[in-house]
UniProtKB/TrEMBL annotation:
Pfam families per the UniProt record, alphabetical: AIM24
Organism: Flagellimonas yonaguniensis
Protein name as it appears in the record: TIGR00266 family protein
Tree of life domain: Bacteria
NCBIfam families, A to Z: TIGR00266 family protein
Transmembrane segments: none
């Protein structure tokens, strides 16, 4: 194997974390902000890119790391290396409620495509890049689902699904239509495109956006019920404005309730 062969255990239900066991000189790479805890004798180091292309020279490293900027990620990742004599553990936590999904790339033909913010961590040697779209429809209308990340190699990788995760096995030619933000990832055999919903009432009054993703089998698809963008928009919409407390929230009277209970400041 080119990637380090790591063992792992996933703990928790709604707010999960993954504990990775490293043999001496084994390492794991992770996005900034996902680290939770680690044993002694684990060395933490900031690396340029994902650490999978150490023999490609300076230009190769620059090109590989630079592509990550297109997904909104940092040029740098963090590597955790076991420099001790025995087995050591390092843990990474979910960014928000959901499920951590282990992906064995050796079982996915060496490549898995996922949302740009789904990647959590991976064994050292797994390449984390971007999957460019070859279709104009995806580019103009894909939204969240346009620029996807690709995980390549033969090791273990871990992605995060918000809310409840659904795993769908698509038969050859079987089509699944999904909100673009609800896609976690899919195997490289799945054909992916953007489709117009159609219909004037759907377009004007539907409230679900103008486009959705079509995923055509064969292959495995992972779907999340709570994309982070949807969670953030709900929190923002529910937040009180002007720094005051909103006592009328959730009531029939709404803002009128503030006048009736004496909170009539303007």
């Amino acid at each position: 194997m080119n990637a380090h062969e790591i063992d792992y255990h996933i703990y928790g239900e709604e707010m999960q974390y993954v504990e990775i066991e490293l043999d001496p000189q084994e390492a794991v790479v992770a996005e900034a902000g996902s680290f939770m805890m680690m044993d002694s004798d684990i060395k933490m180091d900031t690396i340029f890119g994902d650490g999978s292309n150490q023999d490609t020279g300076v230009l190769g490293k620059l090109f590989s790391a630079g592509k990550r900027l297109l997904t909104g990620e940092s040029l740098f990742m963090t590597a955790f290396l076991n420099i001790g004599q025995g087995k050591k553990q390092v843990s990474f936590a979910s960014p928000y409620p959901g499920k951590i999904v282990p992906i064995d790339l050796s079982e996915k033909g060496g490549k898995f495509i996922c949302q740009k913010d789904a990647f959590l961590c991976a064994a050292k040697g797994v390449s984390v890049g971007i999957e460019f779209s070859k279709r104009l429809g995806r580019g103009f209308f894909g939204g969240e689902g346009f620029i996807m990340q690709k995980l390549e190699g033969d090791g273990m990788a871990f992605v995060h699904a918000g809310g409840t995760m659904a795993k769908k096995e698509l038969a050859p030619g079987e089509v699944l239509r999904v909100d673009t933000g609800c896609i976690v990832g899919f195997s490289q055999t799945v054909d992916y495109n953007i489709e117009f919903i159609g219909g004037i009432r759907n377009t004007v009054f539907g409230g679900e956006g103008l486009f959705f993703a079509t995923l055509r089998g064969p292959g495995t698809v992972y779907i999340q019920s709570l994309p982070f963008s949807r969670l953030a928009s709900r929190v923002w919409a529910a937040a009180p404005r002007g720094g005051g407390k909103d006592k009328g929230e959730g009531s029939i009277l709404g803002g009128l309730g503030d006048l009736l209970d004496g909170d009539n400041r303007f």
